[in-house]
Specification:
- By secondary structure, the protein is α/β, with parallel strands linked by helices.
- It folds into two domains: 151 residues, Rossmann fold, CATH 3.40.50; 79 residues, Putative phosphatase, domain 2 (DNA polymerase, domain 1), CATH 1.10.150.
- It is built from nine helices and seven strands; from the N terminus they run ββαααααβαβαβαββα.
- It has a seven-stranded mixed beta sheet with strand order 1-7-6-5-2-3-4, sandwiched between helices.
- The longest helix is centred in the first third of the chain and has 19 residues.
Length: 239
């Protein structure tokens, strides 16, 4: 366990859990499709060039399409159109759309220790999944995960920023100092919650999306290696 928790010893009542790459695998599916996409448009740029172009398009489209598979698919189509100067074959666009269907249909693979630990947490805390992405897809993944019976609720955000966290906590009657957010992204799961007076536990994932990367993010939160260490980490806030 690394990092340093805030000094307050107020009791924790609610644990927020990020979903993708915190509860179940997600980013590897995107990386797989990215590799296929680079092969599809290989005649128009090497892998690094294609990935950089796609990332720039994704960044530009976030405010319009949001997070998730749909925005990713639309960004791949737009990138293919740009890289080919509008000459991308219709069959290639159909292939990209089929990849999107494949991603939506991909089975949920819980990370080690998640099922048992979430059940354990639910005996002591209100547990709320708080995730970004497409509402229908994220709710479908929660339902397929087998975790729903342990949850107090599910919140799907367009963006994870301080204002959004504050709005949700206020609506649920949760005091920020009694709330801990758990996730793999320092940028979206940890820093915004610290800003509103909550606390955070970071569980790094093997791979991360480039747009989630943060430099020089400091401390003020706890970092653990595995999800099953979460109950012990939560106990440190009341020590």
């Amino acid at each position: 366990m690394t990092g340093s928790a805030p000094g307050s010893a107020a009791a924790i009542t609610t644990v927020g859990l990020d979903a993708d790459d915190t509860l179940w695998h997600c980013e590897p599916h995107f990386k797989l499709i990215e590799a296929r996409f680079a092969d599809l448009v290989a005649a128009h740029g090497d892998v690094d060039e294609v990935n950089e172009h796609l990332l720039a398009v994704e960044r530009h489209n976030l405010e319009v399409f949001g997070y998730g598979v749909k925005g990713f698919v639309l960004s791949m189509i737009e990138t293919a159109i740009q890289l080919t100067d509008g000459a991308v074959p219709a069959d290639d666009i159909a292939t990209i759309i089929d990849w999107g269907r494949e991603m939506f249909a991909h089975p949920i693979e819980l990370l080690p220790g998640v099922a048992e630990t979430v059940g354990r947490l639910a005996r002591s805390y209100d547990v709320v999944v708080m995730t970004k992405g497409d509402l229908f897809h994220q709710e479908s993944k929660v339902a397929a995960s087998g975790l729903a019976e342990h949850l107090t609720g599910v919140e799907v955000f367009a963006e994870k920023d301080p204002a959004t966290y504050r709005r949700v906590l206020d609506r649920r009657g949760i005091a920020a100092h009694s709330f801990v957010m758990v996730g793999n992204s320092v940028a979206s799961d940890i820093l915004p919650v610290l800003e509103i007076g909550g606390r955070g536990i970071h569980i790094p994932y093997d791979t991360s999306w480039a747009l989630d990367h943060v430099e020089g993010h400091g401390d003020g939160y706890v970092e653990i290696e595995r999800f099953d260490l979460l109950p012990g980490a939560l106990a440190t806030f009341a020590a």
